[in-house]
Amino acid sequence: MSDKRIAGPEIERLIQLLAKVPGLGPRSARRAALAMIKKREQLLEPLAAAMSEAAAKVVVCSNCGNVDTADPCSICTDPRREDATIIVVEDVADLWALERASEMSVRYHVLGGTLSPLDGIGPDDLTIRALVDRVSAGAVRELILAVNATVEGQATAHYIMGQLDGTEIRITRLAHGVPVGGELDYLDEGTLSAALRARTGF
Amino acid sequence: MSDKRIAGPEIERLIQLLAKVPGLGPRSARRAALAMIKKREQLLEPLAAAMSEAAAKVVVCSNCGNVDTADPCSICTDPRREDATIIVVEDVADLWALERASEMSVRYHVLGGTLSPLDGIGPDDLTIRALVDRVSAGAVRELILAVNATVEGQATAHYIMGQLDGTEIRITRLAHGVPVGGELDYLDEGTLSAALRARTGF
Ligand SMILES: [Zn+2]
Ligand SMILES: [Zn+2]
Prior knowledge:
homodimer, Helicase, Ruva Protein, domain 3, CATH 3.40.1360.10, two-stranded antiparallel ribbon, 7 strands, zinc ion binding (chains A, B)
């Protein structure tokens, strides 16, 4: 492929940035850029505005670690959700995946990663302390540790269980059915939903 | 899939708009939105700015029909390209594809579609008159009609040839190698490049 310039620098820059978006490679970035340019009023301008607005408003929820445009986030402030259950996830993508897959109307806690001594990631780099505080507040009856089925995910789950030793809280995990070594975010919703229904004690 | 709201309206709107981008479905739109939100400074803000700038500056070249941020476009004003050859394409996407595939440094003419009586698209809905004017100006020696290998594309090519009847200009088409019924924009660059080198007379 030649590196000839096929359009002005503003369009080239748009293509370069789009190529960094997960799911779009260099070729599909060009196609996407052209489609946007052709649909300036229906797509390009609204997208630019939506991105600006999201960039200006997105915050990390100080209660649960979710990302949203309000703090506390729309899940934490939703009065229809039950406070008795918290699903603990590594990443916001996992929260989104579980919300889509599940009929449960509960709360979440986003850890922000997993314990990883080799990468220098310890308990204080995650939101584990905030999780323990939420549990200590008293309303929580069950903690579903929906971490990835990886070594780091399981080590993180065990660390959290250690921090909650002596509390009366029920701690569960997702049913086997999640492929070993797999990432939650890539699973189909049926598998996720079934794993959630058949969750087991540790 | 449930239609539960998983985030504030600004993020939902961003996801909805991203899902309209060719190459991104609803699921990859969510993944893309989340990746952008997490990389606010490196991705979300620069993309928003690049889209705003493109939306404000993009124009259709009044000479050749290309889209760019200048009129005449950067291809029409490039002094290193030879004026003797014009490649005629249906769409800007075809121009981009040929530019990537070819070593030729020539000019282009974007028709903006094909003749399609059933859809009410006649010669005046395309840039055929402007093309004839460009040819009449005298510098052009060869017109490569790189229209799609579809019925409408071939009909459009024949109409253009009729309009140029009696001129001395050489009119060629892409070599067979372009799949019958295929769209230029989806071809690999090797095929496109070979088809361009082996172009034939009508
Ligand atoms: Zn929250
Ligand atoms: Zn031009």
